[in-house]
Write a structure and sequence with these properties.
The chain crosses the membrane at residues 276-299. The chain has 301 residues and is α+β, with helices and mostly antiparallel strands. It has a single domain, classed as Sandwich (Immunoglobulin-like). 18% of the residues lie in helices and 27% in strands. The chain is globular.
Length: 301
C-alpha cells in the first residue's frame, strides 16, 4: 500500500479545485453570453409605440442611440417606418431626421424626413438635401411619395418619427442616413453637431430581410464628389441619379456647413442586397469560450 506524501495530496487537491473552478467559469460564461447577446442586440424590440403602429422588423443603428423600425411591402413597394432617437439638449427643443439617399451614401442627395416641434406640436417636414445652406421652414419635394407623416415623444425622451414612403419597384436595399440636432430656430431645424458619431450616421439597409447597419458603400464615379467636404455646396438643381453604389470603404462624410434643399432627384437603382447583409458574430462566442476553457483545463493536467 502506497501512501502519497502530503505535498502530492495537496497538489492533487489544488488541481481538483482548479478544474472545478474552470468548469464553473465555463458554465457561467455559457449561461451569461446568450443573455448579453439579447440585451445588446434587442434594444429596439423594447420600444413601445402608440396603438395602431407596429412594425415587422427593427434595427439598432450604430450611432446616436437611434433605432429604425419598418415594414416593407414588396408587392406594393411601400415602406412603413418609425425612426426613434433622442435629440441632444433640452427636451422638445431639438429635431431628428431619417432619409434615403438614392444617389450616394452621405447627406447630399438624401431624401429626408425631419421631425421637430413647431408652435408646441410635432411636425414632419420633407427635405431634398442638395447642398450646405440652411433648411427652409416649409417642406420641399422629395423623390418618394411620403404619407402618414407624424411624430411624438416617448417617455424616454426619444422623438419617434413616422411615415410611409412609396419606393420604386424592385428596391430591396438602400443607403440611408439619420441625424439629430439640438436646436430649432424660428421654425427651422438648425445644423447638427459634427462629432464623429454624427458624421458616421449612415449605412446600408436591406428592406426585405433583417436589415443591416453597416457603413454605406462608397458611390461609383458619377455620384457625389469630394467637393461635399468643403461645406460650400450650392446645388440648386437636383443631381442626376448615379449608378448603384458598389461595395467598398465608406466615403468621407461632409465636414461642415448647413444643408440646403432643392427639387427631388430621380431614384437610382438600389445597391445589391448582398452588400448589406448582417454580419453576426454573437453565435460563435460560446465556441470560443469552450475552446479557451478546455485549453485551460488540459493545461492543468
Amino acid at each position: 500500500l502506497y501512501l502519497a506524501p502530503p505535498e502530492d495530496m495537496a497538489s492533487a487537491t489544488t488541481m481538483h479545485h482548479r478544474r472545478r473552478s474552470i468548469i464553473q467559469l465555463a458554465f457561467l460564461l455559457l449561461v451569461a453570453s446568450p443573455a448579453a447577446m439579447l440585451a445588446a442586440g434587442g434594444a429596439c424590440e423594447s420600444e413601445e409605440f402608440p396603438a395602431g403602429r407596429s412594425y415587422a422588423t427593427c434595427a439598432d443603428l450604430p450611432t446616436l442611440g437611434a433605432s429604425l423600425h419598418w415594414t416593407y411591402d414588396a408587392a406594393a413597394s411601400s415602406l412603413s417606418l418609425a425612426f426613434a432617437a433622442k435629440p441632444p439638449g433640452t427636451s422638445g427643443a431639438g429635431w431628428v431626421a431619417w432619409g434615403i439617399n438614392p444617389t450616394g451614401d452621405g447627406m447630399k442627395g438624401a431624401q429626408t424626413l425631419v421631425a421637430f416641434k413647431s408652435s408646441g406640436a410635432y411636425v414632419v417636414n420633407t427635405y431634398n438635401l442638395t447642398g450646405y445652406r440652411p433648411l427652409s421652414a416649409a417642406s420641399t419635394p422629395i423623390a418618394f411619395e411620403a404619407t402618414d407623416l407624424a411624430a411624438d415623444e416617448g417617455a424616454d425622451g426619444k422623438v419617434r418619427l413616422y411615415g410611409t414612403l412609396q419606393l420604386p419597384k424592385g428596391m430591396e436595399a438602400v443607403n440611408h442616413i439619420w441625424q439629430v440636432g439640438s436646436t430649432v430656430a424660428n421654425g427651422v431645424p438648425a445644423k447638427h453637431a459634427f462629432a464623429q458619431e454624427n458624421l458616421d450616421s449612415k449605412g446600408s439597409l436591406v428592406l426585405t430581410g433583417a436589415g443591416a447597419t453597416d457603413a454605406a458603400p462608397a458611390p461609383v464615379a458619377g455620384g457625389p464628389s469630394a467637393e461635399e467636404a468643403t461645406g460650400n455646396l450650392e446645388t440648386e438643381t437636383a443631381p442626376e441619379a448615379a449608378p448603384a453604389p458598389l461595395a467598398g470603404a465608406p466615403s468621407t462624410e461632409e465636414a461642415g456647413g448647413d444643408l440646403e434643399t432643392g427639387t427631388a432627384p430621380s431614384p437610382a437603382p438600389a445597391p445589391s442586397s448582398g452588400s448589406a447583409a448582417i454580419i453576426t458574430t454573437y453565435a460563435s462566442a460560446p465556441v470560443f469560450i469552450l475552446i479557451l476553457v478546455f485549453a485551460g483545463f488540459f493545461a492543468t493536467v
